[in-house]
Design goal:
The complex is a heterodimer of chains A (350) and B (255). Helices cover 67% and strands 13% of the residues of chain A. Chain A has 350 residues and is an alpha+beta fold. In chain A, strands 2-4-5-7-6 form a 5-stranded mixed sheet. Chain A has a two-stranded antiparallel sheet with strand order 1-3. The model of chain A has no long low-confidence stretch (mean pLDDT 86). Chain A has 2 domains: 146 residues, no CATH class; 178 residues, Heat Shock Protein 90 (2-Layer Sandwich), CATH 3.30.565.10. With 255 residues, chain B is α/β, with parallel strands linked by helices. Chain B folds into 2 domains: 135 residues, Rossmann fold (3-Layer(aba) Sandwich), CATH 3.40.50.2300; 104 residues, LytTr DNA-binding domain (OB fold (Dihydrolipoamide Acetyltransferase, E2P), Beta Barrel), CATH 2.40.50. In chain B, 33% of the residues lie in helices and 30% in strands. Chain B has 8 helices and 15 strands. A 5-stranded parallel sheet of chain B has the order 2-1-3-4-5, with helices on both faces. A 5-stranded antiparallel sheet of chain B has the order 10-9-8-12-11. Chain B has a 3-stranded antiparallel sheet with strand order 13-14-15. In chain B, a hairpin with a 5-residue loop joins strand 13 and strand 14. In chain B, 34% of the residues are buried. The mean pLDDT of chain B is 85. The chains are: A alpha+beta (350), B alpha/beta (255). At the A-B interface, helix 7 and helix 9 of A face helix 1 of B.
Chain lengths: 350, 255
């Protein structure tokens, strides 16, 4: 992060103005109340406040350093007392050295300089403290704004995927075709019809309910996806093959809801719906190196002329992962002419 | 034309889901005057079956692999009576509301099915040629303006499906449009305006009375004469650009 005072014109202007006012007072007190010459008064005001002006800008990097690492308030305060003390002492003697070389012959001024060191120290600490507080306020305000923005982004992403859910998840095509299959089974195989009807009901219930929670266990998601695939399996018969390799310890991991379902819908839409050959949808979930790796893939016939989707579904999943985990490397697509694979990594918290 | 041997009307069912075909077979038990001569599970085999059997009646699903129900209709030479059987309500209803050809929305009842068959039988026995019906249907299909993602072409017995992304440019040639893919040239009986209205406007642009080009394949555009330009495609092919074409190029590519 860059220094907020020098990078913003308005801030910098206020900073300069404040120091000009301070310098003017400094000069006026010395020249009119203490009776020093204009030259000495101006030099004293300029050198001490000028140094402070420069230090004030540099102090930003100390503030940044002490906020970056996760420290308690007491520790930060102690840090600033030490660094602030050292800096102000340096400032005090640096200024004195400069002024006493410049005006070494003015005995009354040198005496004044030596006597006022304690006051100058207090004055320096005060200004230093004010500058630091301003920096922390700016920081706090920035973080606050960012947090608000992030929150609204997250909210928007969830809303969008909920909307997608309404639009695509209970996709009317899927629903009516399933009902048509049930209608057919009622004649040929009533037991199977009942089984499919119940599965469809459970799938719909889960889908309607899960808007309530932002996070769900992988077990719940996978259970529901199995229902969905069972239904599609009844519709498509041998044209759809389901394979899965999911280790048990993965199932309790919490994942953002609605994040996997669209991938299966895509596999059905672009794989099974557009292929006359059998399409295999494979799910692999394993935990390793503090990540849960979820891979969902499907093959498709090389000459597949499937309509290319707009990729909104995939983009949405990617964005939700990025917002949720604040990382951009959790989503990957691997595709070649006969296979489409999406890999999602969920960080496991130690 | 009633089947001479059995005295029955012939029908073909085209649907990629077996259970969906079974419903129709079951419902047809009420109608012994109709005999199912073949069940097909995709548009390709459906097309072949229609030209082989020349059925009176076709039950047609819309969403199917390879070529969908609409695309099948587009290239069909025979003129059977079509009954759509589909879950695709969104534009089916709109497009065929005024048409004599019926559509059944899945799932449907025996009663609804019987009504549809009753109407079809009436048409078949009235002797009024079905040709008009299917032409009307094709017209209505032509008037729907869904974005074209692929083009289906029938040349002889061969059916070709070209993804829109494979098209390099289109050139008008009398009653046909030449479709150039860079490796192939195919003909489709259609107008260039028909393509202009249906191809994705973000990907294709009409640059001339006789040319539509894929925006991604454009390499450069140069002035040719006072009022015209010439556009070079990445393949090296040069295409004329009219004044109006230049204007829309400028708008679309913002230069």
């Amino acid at each position: 992060m860059l220094n907020p005072i020098i990078t913003q014109k308005k801030h910098f202007l206020v900073y300069i103005m404040s120091f000009l006012v301070i310098m003017t007072f400094h000069f006026a007190i010395m020249a009119f109340f203490l009776g020093f010459t204009f030259l000495i008064s101006a030099a004293d005001a300029l050198i001490y406040n000028g140094l402070l002006f420069l230090l004030g800008i540099g102090v930003w990097y100390i503030v940044r350093f002490f906020t970056l690492s996760e420290q308690t308030y007491q520790m930060i305060l102690a840090d600033h007392l030490v660094t602030g003390g050292i800096i102000i002492l340096g400032w005090l003697f640096g200024g004195m050295l400069l002024l006493s070389t410049l005006f070494g012959k003015e005995a009354s001024y040198i005496e004044f300089l030596n006597n006022s060191l304690a006051w100058r120290f207090v004055y320096g600490i005060l200004i230093y403290a004010v500058i630091i507080m301003v920096y922390y306020l700016i920081n706090y305000y920035r973080n606050y704004q960012e947090k608000l923005l992030e929150e609204s982004r997250l909210k928007q992403a969830v809303q969008e995927s909920e909307l997608n859910l309404l639009k695509s998840q209970i996709n009317p095509h899927f629903l009516f075709n399933s009902l048509n299959s049930i209608n057919s089974l009622i004649i040929a195989n009533p037991d199977k019809a009942r089984e499919m009807l119940l599965e469809l009901s459970e799938f719909l219930r889960y889908t309607v309910r899960r808007n309530e929670k932002e996070q769900v266990s992988l077990r719940d998601e996978i259970d529901n996806i199995r229902k969905y695939l069972d239904i599609e399996k009844i519709r498509f018969g041998d044209r759809l093959v389901i394979e899965e390799d999911i280790s048990d310890e993965c199932l309790k991991v919490m994942i953002p809801n609605m994040i996997l379902q669209p991938l299966y819908e895509n596999a059905i839409k672009h794989g099974v719906n557009e292929s006359t050959d059998a399409v295999t949808i494979t799910t692999i979930c394993h935990a390793e190196n503090n990540y849960l790796n979820i891979s969902i893939s499907n093959n498709y016939s090389p000459g597949n002329l499937s309509r290319k989707g707009k990729g909104i579904g995939l983009e949405n999943i990617k964005r939700r992962l990025a917002l949720h985990y604040k990382r951009h490397d959790l989503f990957e697509i691997r595709r070649n002419s006969f296979n489409f694979e999406v890999i999602i990594k969920i960080p496991l918290f130690s | 034309m009633q089947n001479d041997v059995t005295g029955k009307y012939t029908a073909i069912i085209i649907d990629d889901e077996e259970l969906a075909r079974k419903v129709i077979v079951k419902y047809l038990e009420n109608h012994p005057e109709i005999a199912v001569v073949e069940e097909c599970e995709n548009g390709f085999t459906g097309l072949k079956a229609i030209s082989r059997h020349k059925p009176d009646l076709v039950f047609l699903d819309i969403q199917m692999p390879k070529i969908n129900g609409f695309e099948l209709l587009e290239i069909l030479d025979e003129k059977p009576l079509i009954i759509f059987s589909t879950a695709h309500d969104e534009f089916a209803i709109k497009a065929f509301d005024h048409n004599a050809v019926d559509y059944l929305l899945k799932p449907y009842s025996q009663k609804r099915f019987d009504e549809s068959i009753g109407r079809a039988l009436q048409k078949l026995s009235s002797g009024v040629p079905i040709v008009e019906e299917i032409d009307k249907l094709k017209d209505e299909l032509n008037n729907t303006s869904e974005i074209l993602h692929r083009v289906v072409i029938k040349s002889g017995t061969q059916v070709e499906v070209i993804p829109a992304d494979a098209i390099e440019y289109l050139e008008a040639a009398d009653d046909y449009v030449e479709i150039h893919t860079g490796t192939d040239k195919l003909l489709k009986q259609q107008t260039l305006t028909w393509f202009e209205q249906r191809l994705d406007p973000d990907k294709f642009i009409r640059v001339h009375r006789s040319f539509i080009v894929a925006i991604a394949r454009i390499s450069k555009i140069e002035p040719y004469s006072k009022d015209s330009f010439v556009l070079t495609l990445k393949s090296g092919k040069e295409v004329n650009v009219s004044k109006a074409g230049m204007k829309s190029l400028k708008e679309k590519l913002s230069f």
